[in-house]
From TrEMBL:
Protein name: C-type lectin domain-containing protein
Domain of life: Eukaryota
Organism field: Oryzias melastigma
PROSITE patterns: C_TYPE_LECTIN_2
Gene3D superfamilies, A to Z: Mannose-Binding Protein A, subunit A
InterPro entries referenced in this protein's UniProt entry, alphabetically: C-type_lectin-like, C-type_lectin-like/link_sf, CTDL_fold
Lineage summary: Eukaryota, Metazoa, Chordata, Craniata, Vertebrata
Domain C-type lectin: 1-114, 118-233, 233-347
Pfam families to which the protein is assigned, alphabetical: Lectin_C (PF00059)
Coiled-coil regions listed in the entry: none
């Protein structure tokens, strides 16, 4: 979907941003721990600029810790009077009545992890108190992430057994969840909330307003005017804001780029769905196609459809159908007739 490019020239953050936009796509955006490993393999020298900058004059924005999950200001469970806009309270606690309150991130609290791979035990109450950043790191190393999003919180309430609920309600009055706020934003204006700060060095102030990759593979803040090497990224997915049938979209991508996009895993899904915010149609075509003759779905790139993100169970008895992604909501895949006209994703 994208690749990192290490640039050995010493530049300020702004100069590095201009260089990346002119010669590649933008300064490096990092979406998950897989990207962190790729970034560290790419960087030959540290520190090196990445595309995260502190917009201190902007309002702080709430994010969910789980990559790819957008925060909706219209769907919240804040306790009355919260958040109270205290500048030091940038993380969130879940109270025993399932309402939210903001709290300093450096307080040590119990917390709840979410496990994406174990359907029978999705949630794990961790009773060893940690600050929010260390709690996040623990969840990412041992599970998937801190519990994130209303869907997970509702599922938590529905699926936890009675003894676990009783424990949370009686012996523990509040726990950290994966909701946090900051004024940091990516150069490419994406909404990715992933952060990998080195808390031993991290200083969030106006004098150190840009992010760098450090020698231990984590991130620190730095003076944006310092001249150091940097990391760009090259995007291999492009949204075409033209409404075409699926076949027209296929020919367009193969003529101008490479092919209609293929999505093989959750990381690919999150990268592609981020781009739907600029779409002008309710769905966006992908390279997913149904063969009526053989009775199965396939990617036009010849990749096998292993990862799936259908909005509903597949209906295999329909011909002339191709796969599109929802522009809004959870960005699920849906089956649409080939002759409908939507925007589309090309791979480069």
């Amino acid at each position: 979907m994208y690749e990192y490019k290490y640039i050995k020239f010493d530049m300020t953050w702004t100069e590095a941003q201009e260089y990346c936009r002119k010669n590649h796509t933008d300064l490096a955006t990092v979406t998950n721990m897989t990207d962190v490993k790729r970034l560290n393999q790419t960087a030959k020298q540290r520190p090196a600029w990445i595309g995260l900058k502190n917009h201190t004059n902007s309002n702080k924005i709430w994010h969910w810790s789980l990559p790819g999950l957008s925060f909706n200001n219209n769907e919240t469970h804040w306790r009355w009077g919260e958040p109270n806009n205290d500048g030091s309270e940038l993380c969130v606690l879940l109270k025993k009545n399932l309402t939210w309150v903001d709290d300093p991130c450096n307080n040590n609290q119990r917390f709840i992890c979410y496990n994406e791979t174990n359907a029978s035990q999705n949630f794990h109450l961790i009773e060893t108190p940690l600050n929010w950043t260390n709690a996040q790191r623990y969840c990412r190393e041992n599970h998937t992430d801190l519990i994130s999003g209303l869907q997970q919180l509702d599922q938590l309430n529905q699926t936890w057994n009675d003894s676990m609920k009783e424990k949370l309600a009686i012996t523990i009055t509040h726990v950290f969840i994966g909701l946090f706020s900051d004024a940091w934003a990516w150069s490419d204006e994406s909404s990715f909330s992933f952060r990998n700060w080195d808390q031993q060095r991290y200083k969030d102030n106006g004098q150190h307003g840009c992010a760098v990759l450090t020698d231990n593979g984590m991130w620190n803040t730095n003076d944006c005017g310092q001249t150091i090497p940097f990391i760009c990224y090259e995007d291999h997915v492009i949204l075409i804001n033209e409404s075409r049938t699926w076949e027209e979209a296929l020919y367009y991508c193969r003529h101008h780029y490479n092919d209609l996009v293929t999505i093989t895993n959750l990381d690919d899904q999150r990268w592609v769905q981020e781009k739907t915010k600029n779409a002008t149609t309710p769905y966006v075509w992908t390279g997913l196609r149904y063969t009526c003759t053989l009775g199965f779905w396939f990617w036009v790139s010849d990749e096998v459809v292993r990862y799936k993100n259908w909005a509903s169970p597949e209906q295999v008895n329909e011909c002339d159908m191709s796969g599109a992604m929802e522009t809004g909501g959870e960005h699920k895949w849906v089956k649409k007739h080939d002759e409908e006209k939507f925007n589309f994703f090309c791979s480069k």
